[in-house]
Write a structure and sequence with these properties.
29% of the residues lie in helices and 22% in strands. It has a four-stranded antiparallel sheet with strand order 2-9-6-7, with helices on one face. A four-stranded mixed sheet has the order 3-8-4-5, with no helix packed on it. Strands 14-23-20-21 form a four-stranded antiparallel sheet. Strand 4 and strand 5 form a beta hairpin. It has 403 residues and is an alpha+beta fold.
Length: 403
């Protein structure tokens, strides 16, 4: 029986339609084989698949917990709405998972991609399978299913390759930061300091001694002035960039919209500092406004602002501030806590050389991230076009590699 929620009034030529429950084999999984999160291992014989965002959530060595049903299978997160295609031996997390094993008339990978394509509105932390099973599945013959799956799989693999490139570049950045802030660039002897080893000619300075005072304005007192507002949520702690802003008039301004920022300023979020909400201010935000939840750092002439930008990203810097945060609901530090932190201080020339090296790596990361995002957009577009039959691949000869 076809559900009333059918997405397509006119099926593509040669395609069929079935209600989703008629497309899957009935699977009964004993609760005895499901593994509690508290029992997950970091390493083990068998991966554990659950409803979380990570594809593999943990591991187990318990042979009796191994899923012994049909493979491949799609694991559906009943609460999270996440789909995972699994074609290897695995164990199952205990909470909120459903197993969907497609019937023989469906190519398993096609079925998985079709599920990704289905709109499934979030109902909060409720179970969503009851909504999923109201959906219908449309599908061409098995050969075209395989070709559709092949196209989408190639895009998925290209995205995964980009993620590996980005991960390697980020690891290079981490190792370079450790090396540069410990050994410098001049091959000097090292000395022990209050913040660890550093080259002999370097000194330790507290941030408050090498930054300028910054200004504040109560934007609500300027009701007709329009400005861009940078909130903590405007900053990515993955890319250390401002990824967005909100435009307000002074009459609409949030009470926290007070700190004026300038080009080359460093923004450091004092709420949950361990989340690393850090950004370098570009020209497009010169003279705009940020939240009072940021400490604004503006370098004096003897301090490279980009060098400072990388100083405050270091794990040791964040860990030191993490010990000072106060508050249960919104743990935070003060601007004074941030500015009281000591940092290694070489000559301006060496600061700039160090910053340039790390800036180049960041540019590489940004370039590869842009490529990944382009591929993700292409995947999303092709998923929609192929799963609705707007683009047909039935006449394309892919050879036997996809089979």
């Amino acid at each position: 029986m076809i559900n009333k929620s059918t997405l397509h009034k006119d099926l593509p030529d040669g395609w069929n339609i079935k209600a989703l429950p008629d497309c899957v084999e009935k699977a009964s999984i004993s609760r005895d084989i499901k593994i509690l999160q508290s029992e997950y291992l970091k390493n083990g014989k068998y991966p554990i698949i659950d409803q979380g965002a990570d594809f593999i959530a943990g591991f187990t060595d318990d042979d009796s917990k191994l899923y012994e049903g049909e493979l491949p299978v799609v694991v559906f997160g009943d609460h999270t709405r996440i789909f995972k295609y699994v074609n290897f031996p695995f164990s199952l997390g205990a909470d909120g998972t459903k197993l969907l094993c497609p019937k023989k008339f469906l190519e398993p990978k096609y079925f998985y991609f079709y599920l990704l394509h289905l709109p499934l509105e979030s109902k909060g932390y409720n179970r969503h399978y009851k909504y999923l099973k109201e959906k219908d599945v449309i599908f061409p013959d098995k050969t075209e299913q395989q070709k559709i799956a092949h196209v989408l799989l190639q895009l998925q693999q290209a995205i995964a390759q980009q993620e590996k490139i980005i991960a390697k570049a980020k690891e290079l950045k981490r190792s370079m930061m450790h090396r540069l802030f410990t050994y410098g660039l001049r091959g000097e002897e090292l000395k022990e300091t209050e913040i660890g080893l550093m080259p002999k000619s370097w000194v330790v300075k507290r941030i408050e001694d090498i930054v300028e005072k910054t200004s504040q304005k109560d934007m609500r007192k300027k009701p007709d002035v329009q400005f861009k507002y940078i909130d903590v949520s405007s900053i990515s702690n993955d890319s250390f960039k401002i990824t967005g802003s909100t435009t307000y008039k002074g009459s609409e301004a949030p009470s926290r919209a007070r700190k004026i920022v300038r080009t080359n300023d460093i923004l450091f979020a004092t709420v949950r500092p361990t989340l690393k909400r850090i950004a370098y201010v570009g020209n497009e935000f010169d003279g705009e406004v940020c939240s009072t939840a940021f400490c604004v750092l503006r370098s004096v002439s003897t301090l490279s602002s980009r060098y400072l930008y990388y100083c405050v990203q270091r794990d040791s810097f964040i860990e030191s501030l993490g010990k000072l945060q106060r508050g249960a609901s919104y743990p935070a530090v003060t601007d004074g806590n941030v500015k009281d932190q000591p940092i290694p201080f070489p000559t301006l020339d060496e600061q700039e050389e160090i910053a340039n090296t790390l800036w180049d790596i960041d540019n590489k990361i940004n370039h590869e991230t842009a490529k990944k995002n382009m591929l993700k957009d292409l995947f999303k577009s092709m998923l929609q076009l192929l799963m609705t039959g707007q683009v047909r691949v039935k006449d394309i000869d892919f050879g036997k590699e996809y089979e």
